[in-house]
Every structure is written in structure tokens, then in C-alpha cells.
Amino acid sequence: MKKTKWWGLLAAGMMTLALAACGGNESAGSKSSGSNSGSSASNYPTKPITIVAPSGAGGGWDLTARAIVKVLDETGLVKQTMTVENKPGGGGAVFMAEYATQDVKNDYKLFVNSPPIIINNLKKEGNSPFGYKDTTPLAQLTKDFGAIVVKADSKFQTLTDLLNAIKQNPKSVTIAGGSAPGSMDHLVAILPIYKSGIDPKSVKYVSYDGGGEAMAALLGGNADVIATDASSVGEYLKAGKVRVLAVSAPERLGGVLKDMPTMKELGVDAEFTIWRGVFGPKEMSSEAKAFWEETLKKLSEHEKWKEELQKQGWEAEYRNSEEFTKFLQEQEQQVGDLLKSLGMHK
Amino acid sequence: MDTLSFLLEGFQTALQPHNLLFAFIGVLIGTAVGVLPGIGPMSGVALLIPVTASMTAGLSPEQAAASSIILLAGVYYGAMYGGSTTSILLNTPGESSSVVTTLDGYQMARQGRAGAALAIAAIGSFVAGIVSLIGLVLLAEPLSNVALKFGPAEYFSLMLLGLAAVSGLAGKSMTKAWIMTVFGLLLSTIGLDNVSGVARFTYNISYLYGGLEFLTVAVGLFALGEVFKSILHNEMNDGDIAKIGRILPTKSDLKESAGPIARGSLLGFFIGVLPGAGATLASFFSYILEKKISKHPEKFGQGTIAGVAAPESANNGASGGAMIPLLTLGIPGSGTTAILMGALIMYNVQPGPLLFDEHPAVAWGLIASMFIGNVMLLILNMPLVKLFAKIIQTPTKYLLPLIIAISIFGVYAVQVTTFDVFLLLAFGLLGYWLAEHDYPLAPLVLGLVLGPMIENNMRRALTASNGDYLVFVEKPISLVLLVIALLWIAVPFFMKLRGKTVIVNEDM
């Protein structure tokens, strides 16, 4: 009796394993077919193209990928079918590990990313062994900036007030952000602190799940200051609930934020761009690279794209492949310095 | 009076024929999304955003925004209705918020009361939907301010109360329930720690950076565990399971459920208002509460209708409550509401403190349409109960492969990695082994949900207070919650010491 039971279990296990294996084979199959035809030269693209958002549905990467696909399709800039694929896990690290090893020559798979591709590659904990150097950066399409925000009735009137308070007693100020230490919000928060010569390690940083929760903590008085995306504070500013002490832009932003000073204006030599861009595989064929450089440039100049950006509340900033790569090098340097100052560099 | 006239205007928007159609499409798709595991409400809403954008292309911006958000919100709360179906029929939770429904729902189905369970889930969802909407209309402003006051210390104490209440999920042995809770807490530490950014138990495997996916664990433990058990115990020819009794709940069913539905709706609504707490916790809490106050706590887990009515009302109540921080503060309390917010922003409607002033047609139209959508869902779901209940008549030899296929498909569709499929199988085996030895599975799942919240909020609170533990008793709300948690554990203990017979199990 006992024996038959275990046979049953074994059979069930085999069956489910077989099912799982089928799934695995299928995806492996599509991958290899993708990389094989990378050599089908001149009239690229000849097959459907996938743009990967290395996150679940609904995040910034996902929205960007979907917007790109939508406009490229509507304007007829790309005739082939394009689909968005979500590949969540490890803040993009799961996808990168697969892409940088198995899709090195796959001209038909691109992806969207932002500063985390650099940060995850440099930081010690939760490290992604692959970074932008394992890809071909094709173009930067949008930009956003970091903002240092306090509640409207906060005692900190200016960035200088805040920095002085931290200098005197780092334990007296609670800074919050929507992501883990060593990730983007934290880096934005410590940027002016680091640049004005205070040890960033002494700063009290509390991380929340997402910018929304961080904003709730600020409004509810559970945090003194938050670092977040400049684009997400407009509404709270209009409603008179918060005050923006500084933005990390090179010059003043438009719209509701036009009266908000930049860090540079305030005598803190700091800048941080939250960009979003499109990447291809490391060993992309020159035809494919040329095609995408041209197509993404056309996209960035197209009326429909500008409409889409306005709808989403994103700001346009186009850099071509070469400029983008150079910009990434600079940012890698900056992110590296910040992480080192926190003792979080790998 | 002001509110009422705004609401009437909202109904004018919502009752326009095209908006009625949008609401109907939304709840229809939502029901389907809820029934199918693998497409959760989050991906369902996200995938429909571009579709609604093209459907509403001909309307003026304000109207387009109202119409598409009516459709998308329909998907959101429609999914909460549908989520219970597979939990009850196949022991396979489609959404994390319906995990606890499996405990009694599946038992009811096995006893031939699938129809009653499904019907009460629909009725409970409807009542909770309406209750939470009334709450949304009347209490949005004051509650949003209370929710803001809920800081890390308060969250920590609330979660601790949840953990103390775990005795409510115990089966035969309290000790085993605590072992499972701790096991769940341990599993929840896997992944990148959100407070310090340190990787724990990941062994540089990038799949583990995000921790174990809750749904993978729950589906493995409950659905696959049950499948393995059926196979090994040769339940293949057991024809008795297959009978469906009556479709509609009896009068005594309704009477038994009235209390749980009312309490579940209110509890769900208030937990839903807190950003980050959400529908899953609400369903757990309401189940535990019902068991605690029930005259027959031993019936829970054996297929009592209150065990279905309470959590299903609570998760729907929570979805209504979650609209408050979203609409009044622009703070999404869950993944799905974050996507709804993204959709609103796409139409240049920014949820937040100014929403009701700047876009009253959108805000009130949405609220009014939710009233209508809930009625539609009830009408839509009651006839479907008959249809769905038939699934349970499928012979076991077809049903078991079906459950395996649905589980694997569902998990793969969400995670898109074979790693999670293997994890699912591992938890299936574990679930079988644990259930065989009378270890209750629900505390493990609850530990997994509560673990990160307890830990993160405790450390956030301590960081802010410079390591001073007094912060947890200095804040009044936090103190009250802690005292309740303490009493929850201590009172049955003392009563037992004084020789009274209480529901505490013998080997405690």
C-alpha cells in the first residue's frame, strides 16, 4: 500500500515536471530562433519585435515600453508587429542576467531601462552582474529629476536650513524615500548632503514601498523630508500641502515647478537626471543598430510622440546612441561616487 | 447636502448610455479576470489601459477620462467578485486576497454546498461594495487624514495584532499553528531587505532578490498540496464530492452570514483605507474575527458559511476603502490602485487633494458608476453561480489534471520564470506533507504576508525614533493596538488557569 502511494507521488511529480519542462523548452526555442536570424541582413526588420519592460505591468518601464510601441505602430515608423513583454524580478536583474547571456545577438529584442541599470550593477547588495556595458544603448527618450520635498508647514524654509540642521545633528532629521537604501531615491536624497561635505552615512534614511507611501509619511508627519521624482509633486504643491526645497535639474523646470530653485542655484554643485531609454543587445548587427538609431530619432521628433509624452506627464530629452553612451559613463561615475560615500559600493 | 447634489450629478454622468456600457464591459472583464488565475486585477487593468484609450478616443478629454476610469475601476472590483470562484471550487486562489476563502469555501464545495458558497460570496461582495461606497461618499475626507496619521509605529502594532490573532487559524494544535507562523516569518526574510538594502538568503540568485512570490507559495500549498493528497489517498473514484445541492443559500445560511458580512464589510473598508495594508490582510482579519466571536469556532475550517461570507465581504470592502487614499491624497494603497492612478494621470486627471475640485465629473461619475457596477455584478454573478457550480461535478480524474494545469499556467503567467514553477511544485509537496501531519497552512501564509510589514515598519519606526522602543507605546493608536494584542493572547490563558473551558486547544 505504502509503495503504491509513492509511485503515485512520483508519477504526479513526473507529470508536473514534464509540464514545466514544456514551458521552458518553448521559451528557449523562441529565443534561439531569434538570435539565428540576426544575420538576415539588409532589410531589417523582417520579423516581429519584442520590447521588454523588466518589471511587472504598470510601472514606469512598462508604461514607457507601451507608449513607444503604440506610437511606432500608429505612425507606421515600424511596419513589423511589435509587442511588449513584462519580465519582472530583482529590480530588472533577473531579466539582465538572461538577456546579457542568451540574447547577445538577438536583434529582435530590445528593452527599456533607467538609472537602476547602473545602480544595480554597482551596488554591493542585490548586485546585478550585468550593466549597460553588456548592452548597446540606442537612445534616451525622456527625463525627470529628483526633488527634495518638505511639508508646507515645515520649519525648513530652504535647502540651506535643512543642510545646516543635518550638519548640526544628523539624528534630528528623518529623510524618507520610496525605494531601498542604495537605490535611486536614497541617492537623490544624499546628493546635496554629500556635495556639501556632510558624511552621508550619518543621515537617517527611511525607505518606503514606493513614492506614494513616502509622500503619505511626509504628509502624516512621519518623515521630515522626502526625496522623490519632480514630476510627482506638482499636484501636492498646487494644493499647498508641500514645499519643494530643490530640484536636481541643471536649470529651472517649467509648469508648477517653475519657482522651485535648482540645487546649483543654491550653491550646491549637484545634478541628477532620471532618464529613460532604449537598449539593444551587446552584439547588435550594424543594420539593426542603424535602423533603430534612425527610427528612435524620428520617433522623438514626431508629433504623436510629443502628444503621448504630454499625456503621460513626461519630459522629452533625446540623446542618440553615442551621446547616450557617453552620458551613461558620466552617470556611472557619479553613482559610483555616491555609493562609495555610503559604503554601499560593491 | 452638498455631497448629495454632487453625487446626483455623478449619477447623471454614470447613467449616460455609453458609460453604462463601459461599466458593464468593465465588470464583465473583471469577473473573468478574477476567475482566471494568472491574470490578476493588476495586470488585467494595466493591459486594458491602451484598449480603453482607443475606445474613448472620440470623446472630449474630461468625458474620455470619466468613461475609461469607469471601465477600469469595473475591472478592479469585478475581479474581487470573481476571485472567490476558483478558491471555492478548486482550492486554487486566483488572487492573494481570496487565499483565506479556500479554508471553508473548498470544504463547502466538497460537501456539495458549492452553490451556496458562491452565492454568499457574491452577496457578501455586493453588500460590502455598497457599504464601502457609502463610506467613501460620507467619510472620505476625515478618513484620509486618519490614514495619514498611521505611521510606522501604528502599522507595526496593527500587524502584531494580526500575528497574535493567528490562534484563530489554528487547526487541532496551537503549537503547530505557531510553528507554521514562525516558518512563514522566516520565509518572508528571503530577498532584498527593503530597509537596509541588504540581500538575505539570496545566494546571488537574482530570482530570489524579490523574495518568494506570495501567490506561488499559496497556490502550491493549497491547490497542489490538495491534488497530491487526492492522488495518494486514491480519492479518484470518490463520487460523493461531485454532488451539488441547491444553488441558492438557504434561509438559515443567509441568517448565519448576515453578521459576518456586515462586520467583514466594515472591517474591510477601514483596513482598505490604510495604504499598504490591503485586501489580503482584511480578508485574514475578518476570518479570524469571526472565528473568535463565533459560538461554534470548531466549525471553521470544516465548511461553515460564515468562513466564506466574512473574508469575501472584507476583500471587497477593502477595495472600496482603498479608493479613499487614491482619490483624496493621490496615494495608491495597492498595486492595482497604483495602475488606476497611472490611467487617470494619462488623461491629465491627477488624483490628489485637488481632484474633487478640479475634476468633479470624473470623481463623482466614478463613485456613482461603482454603485451601478456593483448592482450589475450581483445580477451577472448569480446566474453564473449555477454554471460554475457544475465544475465541481467534473470527475476527479479530469479535475486534478485541470487544477495542476491551472496552477502552473497561473503562476507562470504572473512570474514568467520556470523558477517559480519549480517553487510551486516544491511548495505543493511541502503543503501535502504538512497537511498530512496536521500542520495548518493558513498561519504560514499569514506569516509570509505579515513578516515584511512587521519588520519594515518596526525598523522604520525605530530609525525615526533613533532606536527608542518607547515610540510604540507613546503613540495612542499604537498603544491601543498593542494592548488588544496582549489581551488576545493573555485572556484565554488566564481563563483556562481559572478552570474554565475555553477554546484553547489541549496541548497549548
Automatic annotation (TrEMBL), chain A:
SUPFAM superfamilies: Periplasmic binding protein-like II. Gene3D superfamilies: Bordetella uptake gene, domain 1, Periplasmic binding protein-like II. Belongs to the UPF0065 (bug) family. This is Transporter.
TrEMBL record, chain B:
Pfam families: TctA. InterPro entries: DUF112_TM. PANTHER family: TRICARBOXYLIC TRANSPORT PROTEIN (PTHR35342:SF5). This is Transporter. It comes from Geobacillus thermocatenulatus. The lineage of its organism: Bacteria, Bacillati, Bacillota, Bacilli, Bacillales.
